[in-house]
Every structure is written in C-alpha cells, then in structure tokens.
Amino acid sequence: MPPETSNFKRFWMKYAIIAAGEGSRLAQEGVQAPKPLVKVGGEHLIDRLIRVFMVNGASEICVICNEQMTEVAEHLQKIVDEKQVPLKFMVKSTPSSMHSAWELSQWLNDEPFVLTTVDTIFDEEDFQAYVALFNTLAKAGQIDGLMGVTDYIDDEKPLYVGTTGGQLQITGFYDTCEQPKYISGGIYGLTPKAIPVLQRCIERGESRMRNFQRALVAEGLKLVAFPFAKVLDIDHASDIEKAEAFLNIKH
C-alpha cells in the first residue's frame, strides 16, 4: 500500500483504530471474514481507513486487534514489513472498546490523534474537512476534542449528542433523547489531555466508549461536534450494501 499523501499532509497527527471486536453478528449472517477484513467495494475495512488516514497526514497509525484474529494480525504484519505505512499494532483481547482505547493510549499521549473503530464508514471529503478543522482548533488550544456526529440515525443503540451555540459545543451524551439532532459517529479527535480522563474511567471499572465521552464532559474538557452527512457502521451483512450505496461504489 503506497504512502499516498495530498494537500492535507501538512496536518500531521496520529490515528488509531480499534479493530478488536469479534464481529459475531456478521459471522451469524454468513460473513466469514473477520470484521477488519470485510470488504466494502473490494477494499478491506482496515485498508480503507489506513489509506484515508495516510491521505490525511498520518504521522503514525496505531491499531489493536484481538488474539483470535490471527488473519488480521498477519495482514497488519505484512503492511509493517512492507515499510510503506507508519503502522504499529498490538494483539490483545479486551473486554470493551474503552479498554481497547486505553491499550492504544500508550502510543497517543504526545500529539493530537483521531480514533475510530474499524467499521466506521464516512465520506472522505467530510473527513478531510474534519481533520483540517481539528488540526486548526487543537493546535490553537481552542478545544480538547472534535467529535464526529451525524443526524443520520441508523443505529441499534445510538448515543445522542447535546450541543449548544454556533460552534456546536458538546453539552452531554445521552442514551435517550426526545428531540434528537445528532448522534455520535464514532470518530474521536482528541488531544493528549483526554488520556488521564480515560485512565480514571478504567480505574473506576467503567467500560464502553460512551462512558468515556461522558467523563470528558463531566471533567470539563471542551468538546465540539463536527457534523458528517452520514456515518455508517458495519454490524450486519446488509450494512455492506448500505455502505457501498452511500459511497457510490460501482461494481
């Protein structure tokens, strides 16, 4: 995979991918590949993210996959051996996405970073605009995090996001909402200031990324929402077709 860059290469920052889920629902529906190696438009989910991150100035890409995903670890090791992408990964099974983020955090404490799960599908132009804004605001010290949100709701358990003001400062994260506007898109742009908050969540025995996000607000970090037109997760076999339709992939 060539280390392609674009005009956005000046926005050097780290990226991280949580690829440690089992993908059990996909397997039950006949999708045999581990989730990171599921293909959308002929491209592995993990490869798509790596490609997009490289285009958007990745100084380093950090990945965690679980111990059962031997195919995924082999795939990542091949990328590392080819030395064309600044990639490093760990193989470790964790009890939750928050714990996976905590394992990755040892590599993320020295510069702003963008963290996603491996099955996050978004428009690449939206993402470029998101990275550019995050880079500008984070380097100016104006925010502690820029969180990707969307008003497209197609999630079994959406996390609703409360915002205020023209800058869309985040006021809270909610499991239920009578008048929903935005939900979390699972795209987290954070500064190293978030890492101690994550550590305290782990020490309290908490789990799930939504509880980490709530802790960020509770501890007074300034989070701003960035609206994406649409963000999809690949949880079911039917989501693959939805993603390809959204990305307008031609077969």
Give a short synopsis of this structure.
43% of the residues are buried. 33% of the residues lie in helices and 27% in strands. The longest helix has 16 residues, at 124-139.
The succession of helices and strands, N to C, reads EHEEHEHEHEEHEEEEHHEEH
Q: Mean pLDDT, rounded to whole units? A: 91
| Count of helical stretches | 8
The percent range for helix content is 25-40%
N-to-C CA distance: 22 Å
- Beta-strand percentage range: 25-35%
How would you portray this structure in words?
By secondary structure, this protein is α/β, with parallel strands linked by helices. The protein is built from eight helices and 13 strands. The protein has helices spanning 24-28, 45-55, 70-82, 97-105, 124-139, 194-203, 209-218, 237-246; strands spanning 13-19, 39-40, 43-44, 58-65, 87-91, 113-117, 120-122, 145-150, 160-164, 169-174, 182-190, 223-228, 231-233. Strands 1, 4, 5, 6, 8, 9, 10, 11 and 12 form a nine-stranded mixed sheet that branches. Strands 2-3 form a two-stranded antiparallel ribbon. Strand 4 (58-65), helix 3 (70-82) and strand 5 form a beta-alpha-beta unit. Helix 4 packs across helix 6 and helix 6 packs across helix 7. The protein is globular and about 45 Å long. The model is unreliable at 1-9 (pLDDT under 50).
